[in-house]
Design a protein that fits this description.
This protein is mainly beta. Helix content is 1%, strand content 60%. It has one domain: Beta Barrel (Porin). Strands 1-3-4-5-6-7-8-9-10-11-12-13 form a twelve-stranded antiparallel beta barrel. The chain is globular, with a radius of gyration of 23 Å.
């Protein structure tokens, strides 16, 4: 979660020396130029559920977070997915935030009568760069590059390695300052799954969310997201698509600690070659996210 940006210095005091009346006053320092990295008011990045806001960490600030992600509902059986992510975030430079993280996951259940049990672990680094600021441009816009690697160990099968690179754009705006906020995300995840020869796939995600601050530090959100999965790194050979919607809540419990949760349910979708009005071959039917973030 990125901390709130501070207000830039717009003017400085002019000093007049009282010792020599004939001396002219010293010129005032030039106002600090506004930039995309400074905002008069921040918007919590986790106030929008699965969708993210555009703010980045202030230079020199550090934070950490622990997130749980759950996926439930699969075709022809039961296949719960559980994932944990421990992440740090650091404001490396103005407008630039880096966030290394560790991943762990477990999938277990039965699909078409066959038992499935797999564990995974990995690491990645999320790099954010602020392109536009709300004070200057009316909207905040941040570009994100998120490479990661995971190692999966299925029970009774050969372990394999997967590589993922996420390319994302996060935008947000204050519709009613201090009350109503909107966010829009666009991302493309490129995946290579081993062993060699690597299978290539990609997932396109478009998400939008509205967040309402119902009390100081307490936000309620409603979002809608659409995802499309492909059997290549491009936009051909689509294998399925799904549309989700759901609520979220964000609470700034203390000045340093923030808690958030979100739920999405698949409302519509289709897997190629499979009958049905939702896609539970490529996507889960129910998604849950819970996150605790602490800023130092």
């Amino acid at each position: 979660m990125a901390p709130n940006h501070v207000v830039p210095i717009l003017a400085a005091l002019a000093w007049l020396s009282p010792a020599v009346a004939a001396d002219p006053p010293s010129p005032s320092p030039a106002p600090q130029a506004a930039s995309a990295c400074t905002e008069s008011a921040g918007i919590p990045t986790d106030a929008f559920g699965f969708t993210s806001g555009s703010d980045v960490a202030v230079k020199g600030s550090f934070g950490t977070s622990l997130s749980y992600g759950g996926g439930f509902g699969a075709r022809d059986g039961r296949m719960p997915l559980h994932a944990l992510q421990l992440q740090g975030s650091y404001g490396l430079a103005p407008c630039l935030e880096i966030g290394p993280y560790l991943l762990g996951g477990h999938a277990g259940g039965r699909i078409a009568g066959a038992g499935i049990d797999a564990t995974s672990g990995g690491a990645g680094i999320e790099m954010k760069y602020r392109l536009l600021g709300r004070d200057l441009h009316g909207i905040g816009l941040t570009a994100v590059v998120d490479p990661s690697v995971t190692r999966t160990d299925p029970s009774g099968a050969v372990p394999f390695t997967g590589y993922n690179t996420g390319l994302r754009l996060y935008a947000d705006a204050a519709l009613l300052p201090g009350r109503l906020f909107a966010a829009l995300n666009l991302s493309q995840d490129l995946s290579w799954t081993g062993p060699s020869p690597y299978l290539r796939s990609s997932t396109l995600t478009l998400g939008g969310s509205l967040a309402w601050q119902v009390a100081d530090g307490l936000y309620l959100s409603a979002e809608a997201r659409h995802q499309r999965r492909y059997a290549t790194l491009g936009f051909d050979k689509e294998v399925g698509h799904a549309s989700f919607a759901g609520p979220g809540v964000f609470w700034q419990a203390t000045q340093a600690l923030a808690l958030s949760a979100a739920y999405n349910v698949q409302l519509a979708g289709h897997a190629r070659g499979v009958p049905g009005r939702i896609d539970v071959s490529n996507f889960s039917q129910h998604l849950v996210k819970v996150k605790a973030a602490y800023g130092f």
